[in-house]
Amino acid sequence: MSKRIPKMGWIILAALLCVSLAILPACGGGGGTPIPYKNDGAFVQETIGGLNSLDPAWAYDTASGEQIQYMYDTLLYYDGNHTDQFVPMLATNWTVVNSTAIKFCIRDGVHFWNGDNVTAEDVEYSIERAMVQNRAGGPTWMFYMPLLDRMGSRSGGVVVINFSAIDNAVEVVDGNCVQFNFVRAFPETPFLQIMSNTWASIVDKDWCAAHGDWDGTANNGTGNSTMWTYYNNPPKSRSPLYKGAMGNGPWELDTWDAIAGYIRLTKNTGYWQGPAQFNTVTTKFVDEWTSRKSSLVHGDADLVYVPRNYIDQLASYTDLNAIKDLPELTVDAFFFNQNIGNSSTYIGSKALDGNGIPTNFFSDLNVRKGFNYAFDWDTYISDAMQGEATQVGSPVIDGLLYYNNATPKYSLNLTLAKYYLEHSGWGNLSSIGFEFTLCYNTGNIPRKTACEILAENLLAISENFIVNIQPITWDTFLDKIFTISGISDLPMFQIGWQADYPDPDNFVTPFQYSSGDFAAYTGYSNATVDALIDSARLETNPITRQADYYTLQQAYYNEAPGIMLVQPLGRRFFTKYIHGYYFNPVTPGMPGPLYDMYKSNP
Amino acid sequence: MELRSYIIRRLLLLIPVLFGVTLFIFGITMLFSPVQRASLYITDPKQLVDLPTIIQMYGLDKPFFVQYGTWLGQVLRGNLGWSEAGSMPVADAIWHSLPATLELAIFATPLIIFLGIFLGTKAAANKDKPLDHGTRVMAILGWSLPTFWLGLLLMMFFYGFLNWFPPGRLTDQMQILVDSAAFIRYTHINTIDAILNLNGPVLLDALRHLVLPVITLSVTHVAFIMRLMRSSMLESLGKGYVLTARAKGLDERVVVNRHARRNALIPVITVSGYVFAGLASGAVITETIFSYKGIGWWAWQAAVRLDIPSILGFALFSGVLFVFINLVVDILYTRVDPRVRLGGGLQ
Amino acid sequence: MSDWRFTARQLVKNPLSLIGLVIIVIFIIIAIFAPLIAPTPAGHLHPYMIPRDGYFAEPQPPSEKHILGTTQGQYDIFYGVVWGTRTAFHVALVVMSITVLIGIVLGSLAGYFGGVLDEVIMRITDIFLAFPALILAMAIVAGIGPSLKSIMIALSVVWWPSYARLIRGDILQVREEDYVEASRGLGASSPRVIIRHVLPNAIYPTLIMASLDIGMVVLSAAGLSFLGLGTPEGYADWGQMTEFARNWMVGPPGDPFKYWYAVITPGLFILFFVLGWNLLGDAFRDIFDPRLARR
């Protein structure tokens, strides 16, 4: 008796299951399932990853930058969707005093959340503090470069500048103005762009000093005149700003739980432009796509991060506002390494015997051109990017100042590719043959696809062109690219670059400059190009500057130090209840101009 | 052997175990080059220029024993280092991530144990009959399911489709309430805190979020307990006193429940300790899928990012847990089985 | 020898273990005949990399060309699960062999000789066991770089301590038996005693554990895949194929189970493989457990 019942129980359970499985598809509703309106006055977004730090001078990642921007204002900001026109924020105006000084006058009546006034002293303190901190791997080089013509405060791990250099670079003048002094002439627009970004946020000097941060002087209240270096490249926790905040922006910090993975901001009712329309802004870090998607379609989240591959899963939800074709300021590219390390395991026999390549294989221009003609951008864009990207011909992309869309680009042409490879400086490569290993970052499918496309096309030109493809983790990638000798072991690699500020110099330097970020790993160096980059960076005459960058874009095509891939077109998936969005490629984070946005039904 | 000296002796074991575990883990991490270990801090191509500074700052190129010695010196002064994976000091990260995992463990362990005991008893009492086969198959099915597969299926059905049980620990409104001054945090375990605050809605909300992760954890572990209970019951059912009880004419149910089961419970109770310890050290996959981020999730982040201070901190934590649980289980064993004495050996 | 025949008969008599046996034999057949069942297309260089039919993201339903459909990225599911059987056996058998071998060697040394050697080896296993297995495996795979080889290394490192312990325990029991005493009394050398007499009798619980664990190894490897520490993209591996399905679990509204083929198929293969070995292992345990009365 007691044995039968459980058995019956299983049968009934199974029957229920089958019945419900049959009914379910019908219950799912027809196309266009409505999304309920929830959480009036609250903005909730779900994305991947996490926050690094809330300290404006420390944070270099967009996730942190986004939250900082909600909490702090800068002196000025981009006007709407422009990248070279600005509106005053904490500064009421700015004037170019002379070619080596720009003066900002500070707005009256703006307060921090605790009531402290925003003063010129706060502005001076904020920028000087950033330069004092100058943490390794941080964004503050962008103050050093224009102001002090250096990349940082240290050399060989030791601080080599005097405090007076920082002090003189930023000064309070005329009572309520701040003047930035450059050691040599620097163009206005790029500097304004740098000052618009989150690392130039204005923090509360009194609050910071009262909470253990630098007090603004060289000796920091002690008898030691170099005491300020205590705050140079500090451990993260030395500043109260890494997880605390005293800002002046539209929202205040409520809670940041780094383990649970969410940050919540609440409205600053005393914001100088008037209170924001969202009472709370909550960002949750949810790595599971299925979970984020469910949140979006249940109305629990107003915006979620949608990986490119899964865009179509949301196609049938009519209550979603899917915004597309947003030209982001990022670019992906292959780099050729013209000087490969001798101990590299990625170049086979290290000789041109058909089973390898020599360490200077890519130093030959025809080889580089041949590879460029062997890449199929159309297939890459349609397959790896779901059609949502545009090919770029040089590092200067659409959205940057002085972008020239008339710059020639390479395109798939196997005949030409074959021609260049057979007329290379190494001889007729089709008969000699070569073999090497191409790496892509583990998990990055578009990069894998790019490698596969290149390999297949090369193989189609000649069966002696053997390219092996291998995934490589980030730490191994660093290891192979940054060897003790300073020469990279990787014959080719892919890098994505995101704009720090929308000036062409920010892109041209890493891609073409012989002292740029990746120059050491590519062995590319052209003295003429270098000279032009140096002069263009500091050129104050806009017409000359444009001509210079046009030349540099052409130079990239002529020299082909790499294979430029694409500029992705971004998307946003809001529910239809969110209004007011417009796109500015420089604004960090997905929601964009959250202060100008609101939520209502409909 | 006297209980107190036994406990002290066993706790002294902590020292070599902790030393050994951390040395071992440190040894593994030293297989990676300084550049690889710097990848924790250099996460974007833009930061490549500062690689040498990072390596120098953290002494990543110093010899093995210098680095281990530095770490050890810090630990002995009470500083476990900084956790990049948790954006807070390592000790804080452990402290903050433990409640979520403990909450899962507190609910999952009893469910696993009781279900396992129940099914195991039923299976043993009906050996080789369809009920035995049936329960064994169900349990083994649970054991054979990939955890993430089951978890995702559950989430897809109960959240994606029915919208009954959302991921995370609390809904946003409840989270705001809990974060506010009106709600006093005693343990950071939502259910316990809700009870202590006499707050019904929060309790219900927390329970609602617990359903899916606890089911996922339980289904995969129940088979283990069930099997153990079954074989233990079978052994116990074959013993002399059972024959005697049956001969005396006692009802079969009494024989099973009162006599056989009590003795069969012994190994199960001791294993419960290990089950709890296993759950308390984090169920990575479950925590990841359901956004119920606890120490398992944190340890995974640390492992994947090569966050060595965090990994070492976690090693300390699990070493302590391991020694402690072993101690508790051994003492429990002596309490429950009169034949066993402290310090080993059967009577 | 009659012991084996008895064992075999017991296996076949018990319906559950019979099912387990049948399942495993089916998988063995699939693994052996994989090139015939799912032939590698011409020109495709690496048979363990699943051939792709384009790069399109959305999984396609079963069709004539793709009997079981395709995963995201258009990898053929049928090919993947068939060759994945080989991968599963490969990983499971390699990890089990290494693990059992190390376990036997160290466990025997510890159990048979006792004393200081025993203490040292036991402390070492303690250290390994004190650290949660999955995290240790993850750290190892993350450091070496995800690949089949690193998974096997990581899982072996994590698994051997339990076997060393197990074998040591059994040897401790067997060591005191009369026939061992006798053989020692006759002057047999220690290795001889261990190999001839002690091990064969101590091995049964190990075999039980090993057969149960084969399924566990595959599950753990799948778990590692899920956490991003699996084989390279496109490798014929069940864990990876479930990982492909991870983000397609809920279909569009009105058709929530649209991608059932991508979600269910690899999961079922893992399920049945593990189920088969578990049923077999359970049956072994029932047969070999000396505490259970033999009929």
Key traits:
heterotrimer, A: 602 residues, alpha+beta, D-Maltodextrin-Binding Protein, domain 2, Dipeptide-binding Protein, domain 1, Dipeptide-binding Protein, domain 3, 3 domains, 5-stranded mixed sheet, 4-stranded antiparallel sheet, 18 helices, 31% helix, disordered N terminus, C: 11 helices, elongated
Could you explain how this protein is built, in words?
The complex is a heterotrimer of chains A (602), B (347) and C (295). With 602 residues, chain A is an alpha+beta fold. Chain A has 18 helices and 23 strands. In chain A, helix 10 packs antiparallel against helix 13 and helix 15 packs antiparallel against helix 17. The radius of gyration of chain A is 27 Å and the shape is globular. With 347 residues, chain B is mostly helical. Chain B has a domain of 214 residues: MetI-like fold, CATH 1.10.3720. Chain B has 16 helices and two strands. At the A-B interface, helix 1, strand 10, strand 12, helix 8 and helix 14 of A face helix 3, helix 4, strand 2, helix 6 and helix 7 of B.
What is shown here, in short?
The complex is a heterotrimer of chains A (602), B (347) and C (295). Chain B is an all-alpha fold and 347 residues long.
Q: Please report the first level of CATH classification, the CATH class of the domain at 91-304 in chain B.
A: Mainly Alpha
Shape of chain B: globular
- Relative strand content of chain A: 15-25%
The biggest beta sheet of chain B is recorded as:
2 strands, antiparallel
| Rg of chain B (C-alpha, Å) | 24 Å
Structural class of chain B: mainly alpha
Task: Using the 3D structure, state the CATH architecture of the largest domain in chain A.
Answer: Roll
Low-confidence region ranges of chain A: 1-6, 21-31
SSE map:
The complex is a heterotrimer of chains A (602), B (347) and C (295).
Chain A: H1 4-27, E1 42-47, H2 62-71, E2 76-78, E3 86-88, E4 91-98, E5 101-106, H3 120-133, H4 141-148, E6 154-155, E7 158-159, H5 163-169, E8 170-173, E9 177-181, H6 188-196, H7 205-210, E10 251-257, E11 262-267, E12 280-285, H8 289-297, E13 303-304, E14 320-327, E15 330-336, H9 365-373, H10 377-384, E16 389-391, H11 414-422, H12 429-432, E17 434-441, H13 445-461, E18 465-472, H14 474-481, E19 492-498, H15 504-512, H16 519-522, H17 527-538, H18 542-559, E20 562-564, E21 566-575, E22 578-579, E23 598-599
Helix pairs in contact in A: 9-11, 10-13, 11-13, 15-17, 15-18, 17-18
Chain B: H1 3-12, H2 14-29, H3 34-38, H4 51-57, H5 64-76, E1 82-83, E2 88-89, H6 90-125, H7 130-144, H8 147-161, H9 172-179, H10 190-196, H11 200-237, H12 240-247, H13 252-280, H14 284-289, H15 295-305, H16 308-336
Chain C: H1 2-13, H2 15-32, H3 34-37, H4 77-113, H5 115-129, H6 133-144, H7 148-175, H8 178-185, H9 190-226, H10 238-245, H11 260-288
Helix pairs in contact in C: 2-4, 2-11, 4-5, 4-7, 4-9, 5-7, 6-7, 7-9, 8-9, 9-10, 9-11, 10-11
